[in-house]
Amino acid sequence: MKHITGRDGLIVADALATAIVAMEGLPNTLRPDSNIEDMKSILAAVSAPSLVSVLLAQAKCRLNQVSGREAIDAVYREYGLID
Fold this sequence. Notes:
Elements: H1 8-24, H2 33-46, H3 49-63, H4 69-78
Helix pairs in contact: 1-2, 1-3, 3-4
């Protein structure tokens, strides 16, 4: 991939995480499960393992407009980022 911004990889990884979370929230009849699984594989390939869960948790908070420390902590717990 050609480098344009100096942070292209992070932007692509963030976009993938956001798309994954958005698609996972679709009703079963509309959810493209094979695409979601492929996108998860791509995300894992282009991101450090420790970053994948962070990006997914941030995307979930952003898409669901999660606010407040307890609610954010619950999402981060869901992704195994905190105990």
